[in-house]
Amino acid sequence: MLKIWRTKLGYLGQETWRGLRRGGWMNWAAISTVTVLLFLFGISLQTSWQVSGLLNQLGSQLEVSVYLEPGLSGQVMRPTVLQFPEVASVEVIEKDEAWKSLLQDLGQTDIEGATEGLGQNPLVDELKVNARSAAQVPQLAQKLARVRGVDGVEYLDEALKNLIEINRGFSRLSIVVIGLLTLTAIAVITTTIRLIVISRHQEIEVMQLVGATKMWIYLPFILQGVTFGIIGAAISWGFLSGIRQFIYRLLTDQPNFLKVVSDGLRLSNSQLILLPLILLGFGSLVGLVGSLFAVRRFALR
Amino acid sequence: MLKIWRTKLGYLGQETWRGLRRGGWMNWAAISTVTVLLFLFGISLQTSWQVSGLLNQLGSQLEVSVYLEPGLSGQVMRPTVLQFPEVASVEVIEKDEAWKSLLQDLGQTDIEGATEGLGQNPLVDELKVNARSAAQVPQLAQKLARVRGVDGVEYLDEALKNLIEINRGFSRLSIVVIGLLTLTAIAVITTTIRLIVISRHQEIEVMQLVGATKMWIYLPFILQGVTFGIIGAAISWGFLSGIRQFIYRLLTDQPNFLKVVSDGLRLSNSQLILLPLILLGFGSLVGLVGSLFAVRRFALR
Amino acid sequence: MPEPIDPSLQISPQPTLNPSSYTVQLRGVTKIYPKTKFGLVDVNLRLKQGSFLFVTGPSGAGKTTLMKLIYGAERPDHGEVLVAGNSVGVLRGNRLSHLRRQLGVVFQDYKLIPRWTISENIAFVLKSQGVPRDEIERRLRPTLKLVGLQKRAECFPDQLSGGEQQRASIARAIVGSPKLLLADEPTGNLDQENALQVLSILTKLNNLGITVVITTHDMHLIQVAQAPVARIYNGRLHMVNAEQAASERV
Amino acid sequence: MPEPIDPSLQISPQPTLNPSSYTVQLRGVTKIYPKTKFGLVDVNLRLKQGSFLFVTGPSGAGKTTLMKLIYGAERPDHGEVLVAGNSVGVLRGNRLSHLRRQLGVVFQDYKLIPRWTISENIAFVLKSQGVPRDEIERRLRPTLKLVGLQKRAECFPDQLSGGEQQRASIARAIVGSPKLLLADEPTGNLDQENALQVLSILTKLNNLGITVVITTHDMHLIQVAQAPVARIYNGRLHMVNAEQAASERV
Ligand SMILES: Nc1ncnc2c1ncn2[C@@H]1O[C@H](COP(=O)(O)OP(=O)(O)OP(=O)(O)O)[C@@H](O)[C@H]1O
Ligand SMILES: Nc1ncnc2c1ncn2[C@@H]1O[C@H](COP(=O)(O)OP(=O)(O)OP(=O)(O)O)[C@@H](O)[C@H]1O
Ligand SMILES: [Mg+2]
Ligand SMILES: [Mg+2]
Fold it and tell me: Closest-lying ligand to the alpha carbon of D55?
C-alpha cells in the first residue's frame, strides 16, 4: 500500500514536472501573466502601505498651535496638555521669545523700545503640540480648545482633513482595484490552464479510455497551476524589491526636503516579510482556483 | 485576376473571423492580456501627462516675493518686472497694507501708536511675481535679484527644485516602464499567437502538404494578432476613461483645497483625442509585431 | 437471424437467469447518432468469458460503434450494455475508470499520445493502475518484443510507420493483462505476415481465458482463425459462420 | 534487379537524356532516419506521365518514406528526387507549395483537419489555389458522391467511421485534378467492395492521363488491378510482376 502511494506521488510529481518541461512556451505565457498580475497587486499593496506610512509621517509633523490666555505660563500648562493620550510631545514657546524673533524678522533691533512703544509685549505663550497620528489631530484640537486657560487653537485643519479623505479614498480604490485584479488573475490562469488542457485533450481522452481516474489525469494540471502561481509570485517579488530599491536610491540622492517622503515610503520590517508571504499565498491561491476552474468543466463530467 | 483577388481577400477575412470565432477561450486569453498591458500603458501615459499638468499647475501658483529697497514704490517697479518674458503676473503689496495686516494679526488696533513706537513703518513694498511655468522660477528669481531697486528675492527654492527633479525622474521612470511594458506586451501576444499556432500545428502541416503557401497559412494569424491588439485597445480605453471619470468625481466632491490638484489632473482636449489613437496604434503595432514573431519561426522555414 | 454457433456465444432477445456469467452482454441496444441518423439498432449479443468473436461489415456499418458502447465511450439510446455484470451505460467517474482497466482496447485510429514515446504510451496503462515502477519495467520489454517493436521503444509515434503504430497500439491493449480485449481493425495497416502474427498473439491470449472481440475487413484472417463471425449490416447484427463470411464479399 | 515490365516505367541507375519527360524520377536516393537507422537505400525509379504503380512491402519497409520523398515532406540524404522536372529536395517555400498543388496525396493517417467539416477539408485544397467559390461548389458535390460521402459533407472527421475518413482523404486528394496521385495505403480501413470502388476510381483517373502510385498490403487489389508492382524490402526497391507479387506473402 505504501509502495503504491509512493508510486502515485512519484507519478504526480513526475507528470507535473513533465508538463512544465514539455509545456515550453505555454508555461511562459502562464507565468508571465501571473507575474504581471501579482506585480500589479504587489505594487498596489505596497503603495497603499507606503501612502499610509507617508500620511502618518506627514501627520506626525503636523502640530496643533495652542495659544494660552494672556498671563498664563506655557511651562505651567505643559503637564496638563501632556496628559492627553493623543499627545506625542509638547514644545513651549514663550511670548518673550516669540516677540524677539518677530521683531528680528521685521529688522528691528531695539526690543525694549519697541515693547515700550506698544505698551507691552502683545503676544501670549504658545504650546506646539504634536499628535501621535494624523487622524487624531482634529479631536485633539477640539479637546485642547476646551481646556481652561486655552484662548485659541490652530492647526492645518483643511489640509489634514483632505489628506485623510484622500487616504480613505485611496484605500477604497485599491480594494476595488485589487478585487478586479484578483478576478483577472484567476481568469487568466484559468484560461492558460484550460488552453493547456485543451491542447492536450487528445491525451486526456486517451487516458480516460485506458482507465485513468479523473484525479490521476487532472491533479498534475492543478499542481501546474499552483506552480505557475508560486513562480509568478517569486518573480514579481523580485521586481517589486528591485523597483523599491531603485526608488529609495532616487530619493536618498535628493536633499533633505524629501527626507519625510523617503521615510514615509520605507516599509516596516514586518511589511518586508509580509509582502513575499502575501504574494506567495495569493499566487498559489490564484493558481489553485484558476486551475480548478479550468479543469472543473472537464473533470466533473 | 480581380476575381481571384476578391476570392483571396474573402478567404483571409473569413479565415481570420473563423479563427476568432472558433478560438473561443484562446481569444480571451489574448485579448485580456493585451487589455491589461495597454491599460497599464495607458495609465502610465495618462499619469505622466497628469503629473506634468499638475506640476505646471502647482508651479504657476508658486510666486517669487520681491522685496524692494526702503522708500521705493511697488507701483513704480511693476512695469519693469512685467517686462520679463517669464513673468505671468505681478501683484503689489504696499508696506502700509502689510504693516496694517501684521499688526491686526498681532491683535493690535492702535496702528498709529504702534508705528510711532517703532519710529516708522519697519516694512518695505513687496511684489508678488508669478512665473509662467514652474521650471522658469529659479532663473526668474535670479534675474529679478539683479534688478536695480530690488533688495531681496524669496521663493520656495528647495521645494520647487525638488518638484522639478521628481518630474524629471518620473519621466525617465515612465519611459523605462513603458519600454518594459511594450516588451512584455509583445512577448505575451507572441506567446498567445504561438499557442494558437502550436495548437493548430496539425492543421498547418496539412495545409502545407496540400500546397497552401506560407502567406496563405499565416496571414490569418497575423490579422488575428492585430485584431487582438485593436480590441484590447478599445477595452483598455474604456477602462481608462471610466477610472478617470471616477477620480474626477472623487476630487470634485472635495473642498476647494484640491481644486489645484483636480485641475492639474484634467487632460487637455488634444490629449483626450490622442489617448485612444495612441492606444489603438500601439495595440495594433503590438499585435502585428507579436504575431509576426509568433509565426516567424514557422513561416521562415 | 441465424442460430448461435458456439455454446459460449449467444444472440438472444430474451433475458437470462444469471447475467453476470457473461463477460459482455448487450440487450436490445439501440444507438443512433443524431447528426447522421446512423448507428446500431436493437443489437443483442452475449459473450461468455473466454470466447472469441469476429465482427465484420461494410464501412460505416457500425462496428466501431459497437466497440464504443462496450468500452463506454458512447451510451446506448435504448437497451443495456453489461460488461462483467456492470451496466456500462450508467457507470461514471471512477467506477467507469476501474472497469476500463479490465479492458484492453486497440483503437481503429490507434490513439497513441503524440508527445509520449512508445514505451511511455504503453507503460501509462500500468502506471495509472498504480503498478510499481520495477513491475512496469518487467512487463514492458516482453510485450514490445511480442509485437516486434523492441527497437522502437524510445521513438515517438510520428517516428513510426503506420503498421508500427498499429502494433504499438496492440501492445498497449495487451500489456495490462485485460479480461476483455477489444481490437478494432487491428491489422488494417499490416502486411499479411504481421497480421497473422497479431492473430496468433490474440489467439494465445484467448487460450489463456481472455475474451477477444476483433473487427476486421480481412477475409483471409477470418478464414485462418475459424472463429465465430458476426456481421453488422445497416446497423443490425447478424451471425454468420466463418466459412460463409469468408466466401461473401463483406 | 528484374527488368522493367512496362515501357512507361523503368528502374535504372544510369542518367537519361531527357529527364523532364518523366513525372517522377528518383536517382540513387538514400534516406536514413538518424533515430532509427531505417529508411531507403539507393532507390532508382522512373515513372512516365500516365503510369500506374503499386508499391508493396512489409510493415516498416519504407513505403511511406518513398511517398514522403516524392511530395517533399522528407529530403534525401543522397541522390535526387525529380517531380515534373523539379528537384523536390531543394525546393522551398512558395515553389514547393506550387509543386504540391499539382499533387494529390492520400496520407496513410488521412490527415484530415479535425475542426473542419469534411466539405471544408476538401474545399480547402481548391481554396488555397485561389479557385473561386462557385467553382469550388461545382466540384465538391461530384467528388463527395464519387467516394460515397455525399451525406457526410457537413460532418466533422470524428463523426465519421474509419473507412469514411479514409474515403474523405481520397476525395481531398483527387478534387484538385492533380497530375500525380500518391495514395498511401488508401484501402486499409475499407471493406473489399469499397476498396474495389476506390481502385476503379483511381484506374479511371489513370486513364485520363494522371500518374498514380499506390502503396498497399492488399494482395487482392493487386491481383485485380494487373498493374506493375514494386516491392520494398529492407529499404531497397525491387520490381516484381503483378502475378508474382500476389502469390507471394508480401
Ligand atoms: N460521432 C458521430 N456522430 C455522428 N455520426 C457518427 C458518429 N460516429 C459514427 N457515426 C456514423 O455512424 C455510422 C457507423 O460508424 P462506425 O464508426 O461504427 O462504422 P464502422 O463500422 O466502424 O465503419 P469502418 O469500417 O469504416 O470503421 C457511420 O455512418 C458514421 O458516419
Ligand atoms: N520520422 C522518423 N524518424 C525515425 N524513424 C522513422 C521515421 N519515420 C519512419 N521511420 C522508420 O523508418 C522505417 C520505414 O518507415 P515507413 O513509414 O516508410 O514504413 P512503411 O513501409 O510505410 O510501413 P507501413 O506499412 O507500416 O506503413 C520504419 O522502420 C520507421 O520506424
Ligand atoms: Mg470503424
Ligand atoms: Mg506506411
Answer: 2
